[in-house]
Amino acid sequence: MDVLALQERILAEVSAAGDAGALEAVRVAALGKKGSVTEALKRLGGMTPEERRERGPALNALKAAVAGAIESRRGALEAAALDARLATEAVDVTLPIRPERRGHIHPLTRTMENIAAIFGGMGFSRAEGPDVEDDWHNFTALNFPPDHPAREMQDTFFLDKAAGRLLRTHTSPVQIRHMQERQPPFRVISLGRTYRCDSDATHSPMFHQVEALYVDKGVHMGHLKGCLARFLAAYFGVEEVPMRLRPSFFPFVEPGAEVDIRVPGADRWLEVLGCGMVHPNVLKNCGIDPDQWQGFALGAGLERLTMLKLGISDLRPMFASDPRWLAHYGEVA
Amino acid sequence: MKLPLTWLSRHLDTRADAGAIADRLTALGLEVEGVHDLAAVYAPFRVVAVEAARAHPQADRLQICTVREADGQTHEVVCGAPNARAGMRAVFAPEGAALPGTGAVLKKAKIRGVESRGMLVSLAEMGLSDEAEGIIEAPESAALGTPLVEALGLPAGPVLDIALTPNRGDAACARGVARDLAAAGLGSLKPLSDDAPVPAAVPETAVKVVVEDADACPLFLAREIRGVRNGPSPEWLKALIEAAGGRSVSALVDITNFLTLDRGRPLHAYDAGALCGDTLTVRAAQARETIEALDGRTYATSGGEVVIADAAGPVALAGLIGGVRTGCTEGTTRVVLEAAVFAPAAVARAGRALGVESEARYRFERGVDAQATAAGMEAATRLILEICGGQAGPVVAAGAPPPPPPPVRFDPAFADALLGLVVDPARQADILRALGFSAEGGRATPPSWRHDIHGPADLAEEIARIVGLDAIPVTDLPRAHLTAAHQKSRAVAARGALVARGCDEAVTLSFMDGRAAPRFGPVIDAMRLENPIAGDLDTLRPSALPHLLAAAAASARRGHPDVALAEVGPAFTGGAPGEQEAVAACVRAGAATPRHWAQPARAPDAFDAKADVLAVLEALGVRAEAAQVSPGAPSDAYHPGRSGALKQGARTLAHFGEIHPALAAEIGLRGPAAMAEVFVDRVPAPRAKKGPPPPLTLPELQPVTRDFAFVVGADVETARLVRAVAGADRLVAAVAVFDVYAGLEGGTQKSVALAVTLQPRGKEALTEEALAAVSDKIVSAAAKATGAALRA
User: Fold this and answer.
1) Any idea which architecture A107-332 has in CATH?
2) B461 contacts A255? CB cut-off 8 A
């Protein structure tokens, strides 16, 4: 039989094979033990060398062409079968996903961690102290004279007034505890809950403060300003926050100052911080020689700093735990 | 403190305007919170003539008034005041004006069909009175267009609102403020000319003075003035008192108040005719003495407060307030004037105990200028003679002024070092002298009015105040010689684990309702606040759960029941420092998984809470296997059969479980809720790692998994079975519980199906024999530990 005609017939059968079974039947009929191509090749053995030389290559080319056509048809059929299966497997990807909860970090916590990181970059490590304090750590050691009006300004919660047990009114007792236990130099910050008997849109009976303390030789008020400038710029994420120090009074610092800033976009000064050089009496009370060591301290209310960033003016929702508020103002972890 | 500029200018010669003065005061540490000017506030409101008033056609009580302004313009306004009538002079508020009393901005309005442009105003609408009794009647003589301030004789001109710090009692008066401004170069201080002794016009003062406690009252001066006529104050005095926010009472009272605000020298005037006996005694009060005071309140002493008494009892609370019985009235003709020095602590204690707020208390508890006591007496005497007439007697005295503040070390180099600013020593001395110090030879003596100067740091502050804190250059911190520990705090780790598991972090109050607290943990008396801000916030919380549960209930009431809330904060065990621990708590309520097309809805259960606990513990470095679960309610807040604790040895690291249904009902939480508490401080710190972790060697061969279905007693803890299987052979790498069926043998037995992963070590694959041997070991270990048998 004419090789070309054979090839044409087989290739036509390959093309016509509609599934893997039909294709296999075509393969067996052509390339199987008794297949037409196999048979034709077998016949080469009975030929003369001249005939073989003439027919051999043509028959081998036929075999290769048939095998190639079958393979490529097989691939095409498999691909079509897969396509057909995948078509049946389609889902509506516009359906919603299985619900997953996204938790949120409270904005106050975010502020605290942010501030801890900023001060960490300036070499301040973190110190902690108890929420329940005694009168000595909260007031006396911080140079609040007994019966002084400054004590009354703090609206203290008492657990036992006679015994001097109270809820700390500021984070400053942490610096006392820190200084009692070690000698300078040190840089520490404390962040935490503080309590005063006061409640309205801008006061909560519980609130949070940060306090930073740096004691070393030769620390001066210029360093305090440097530290403030760097902290405020980093916290508000700007190159420089305009700030103004006003002399003020806190018993535990001398000189003492309040810090007003202009937050980006604000048209007036806002009071955000208190600070000053650690009062010599405070150092003495903690067993540190004020003739050798100097230091600065600064403290701020974290609610205020947070509210400035969030652009809110009522702090009560901060402690009301409404999940909608937490999700809106909180940060996805 | 409200200080009218007119008052300040009695003491300060300056060309600076109110704005410049306010800025400088703030820079000096006398913070000006605002500059108010009534003339500016009331500028839109002017006198008009009511030309006609006719009844409103639609309303009985309203009239339509025609008013004429100074420029001849007329308006029709609807007015409901009964006193509105034709021919009167009234005060008109034009459209667009903001009413100071209400804050409302006037708009053109139609009132019962009649258009009204502007309005005739009352004192209440002007914020000048609490009662609305008709519209303001301006004097007949007032010219049209006269500003309200002028028509009513209100104090005009800027008033500084100064927030004083407690250390600056000396600045609580016009003279004190003027002194600071003069020292700062913003004008010059006018000399006083009224404090020389007034010669006695009558030979004696008919009272004797006895001071029983010289510590509480080092100096007490008294003087009688006879033949006075008490009446209204002259206009200038009245205007000053009112501009400062006070109320003019009568000349005698106003004069004493004037000296308080002018010099910081509190005085008191007794009606000598009302005094019983001839002796004023300064003594400690006995318990339950009462005094009806000039503020209209009656105070009862608890004993020990310093009082001034006559033969009939207390006539004044020393340094706080005088009594009504001996107060000056219109009929007073003889006064006894008191000028005294009371110890700050004594005044502060009594003031706080009795709850008296007064100008005198404010100054005495911050310390007055004792050296100026007599001068104040003389200045007041002069004013009384000038305004009320009369003849002054001699001053009788008990005690002596306490010694002035002692000198302190003055070292210009110290101030430079503290401030980080070089200020020439001569300039420093000049500054101190300008503030009234004497400064020479390394010492500076504070003026008698300053009680806040105790050392060189205080002098440095004075220098800084005057030079200005702005002058101090911003200086970078030196490099830290200590590197801050950058370890992640445990609170951060615990919080992160809960938030990662979908909890919204909350921050809730540290105190709670003492009645509800014991359910959540032990509460002792020491945890109760003596002065809670509210009855339901009176006890330190023994747990962080209660507020989270309340928040979940509140959210459900608002229509958002599905919540997961977490908090890392303190829980208290007592009322002394240190009796607290950090807790990471969370509450899941509503649906753990809501209704959804791909999975069934379910409520949160104990295993959600257990997962929370394990996630936190793992974040804190505790491996889940290292903790044992101990079933049973950790507190009355938990469901007794669906809760437990995680322990490491004897140490309880965490509680978890479902809420007790009774508690849920109590707080109005519908459906089950899961909750957990991890006691962060109790978790042992992971051992500090030295060097890198050991090298990782991964097994070369694949693991093999075999399933076992055991039947055990219904009350056998599954964890015991799992532990036994896990420990049966070295090859057991993991045990998973993939099925539990509890209803065997009438509920006395349960089936627990385990998938056990066997991990061959080394290079040798597991043979069938080896697998069979391990299986046998597993079965016998399970049987030994729990009586388990393989399910047939």
Assistant:
1) 2-Layer Sandwich (3.30)
2) yes
